[in-house]
Amino acid sequence: MKKGSRCFRRAAALLLAAVLMTAAAGCFAEEKGASAMFADSLPNSYMYPLKDGGGKVVGITYPSRDYFGDRAEIEKHALVYLPAGYSEDVPCDVLFLCHGIGGTEYEWNFSNTPGNLSGKYVADHAFSDGLVKNLIIVLPNGRSTANYKDTSWNSMGAFYVFGQELRNDLIPYIDEHYSTWSGRLKDDPAAARRHRAMAGLSMGGMQTINIGMCECLDLISAFGAFSAAPTSKTAGEIAQLLKAFPEDLDIRCFYNICGTEDGTAYWSASAAAKTKPADSRLTESNWYWQELPGTHDFKIWYLGLFNFLKLLGSMQE
């Protein structure tokens, strides 16, 4: 065999090996800063109702203002998920779980009779399996305007002022009307914030980053962004905005998940969190980036909720 032929075959073999290795690498979820606690698929049982028991969903109406408009007094509606066995005698942590741009407080499908795969199924099973305990989940409408029921583009700007409603109206209402750790610790804000978390899908993921972390770090300490939407702050912007807060306000966790075929949010989510924001409060032990095959849909978002509830449970005292 001629030397040139041997070289060609060897080069072709190396090229084929490289292609196969690249293809194989694309078959696995990529996790940065992630631990073994993060699943890459939702357990099958979590797709169905819990056979016995489960949490209760209640609707609430609370006073707020039209922060996107003239700041007139208004009333807002939200849903509250109370875990099975909830008691006024037992204080709970609180998770504020936000919806996407075309959704409302109902988008996560938390209801007492959801009928289909739902966020409530995920939460019910997570509590039943002992992955998390004593946690109230609040599902607000993320538009801070009198026209919050309007799901058209006309109300999009109201998503960006939700931080005022969260700080001035919703958090105080929840602490006053439910048994929360943050309510019991209201005279110690630094301790109270360690019992609040915020997460959301798409536009709600943007709100979690831009508002929860970058505006309300003095109120909230744990964050989960699922397919964070365009207009999310970049990692560089996050690091810059965090400088406004005292360094002793820690970040208990910053978890992110996105599908690699997500044409809507992959690049915005990646720009926000695939590279760890350069802030000393974020380390390999509390910053998590998870990407896996998937699009901009509830297959990713319910998995994100499952993994985030597990993460919150692992940090509970």
Return the average pLDDT rounded to an integer: 90
Oligomer: single chain
Order of helices and strands: HEEEEHEHHHEHEHEHEH
Shape, please? Answer: globular
Count of strand segments: 9
Going by helix content, strand content and strand pairing, the class is: alpha/beta
Strand content: 15-25%
CATH class of the largest domain: Alpha Beta
- Major sheet attributes: 9 strands, mixed
How many helices in DSSP terms?
Answer: 9
CATH architecture of the largest domain: 3-Layer(aba) Sandwich
CATH homologous superfamily caption of the largest domain: Alpha/Beta hydrolase fold, catalytic domain
- The whole-angstrom Rg is 21 Å
Spans where pLDDT lies below 50 across 5 or more residues:
1-29
Our measurement of the CA-to-CA distance between the termini, rounded to an integer number of angstroms, reads: 71 Å
CATH topology of the largest domain: Rossmann fold
The tally of domains stands at 2
- Helix coverage percent of residues? 25-40%
- Strand arrangement across the biggest beta sheet: 1-9-8-7-6-4-5-3-2
Give an overview in words.
The chain has 317 residues and is an alpha/beta fold. The chain has 2 domains: 1-27; 33-315, Rossmann fold (3-Layer(aba) Sandwich), CATH 3.40.50. 32% of the residues lie in helices and 19% in strands. It is built from 9 helices and 9 strands. A 9-stranded mixed sheet has the order 1-9-8-7-6-4-5-3-2, with helices on both faces. α6 (203-213) links the parallel β6 and β7 (222-226). The chain is globular, with a radius of gyration of 21 Å.
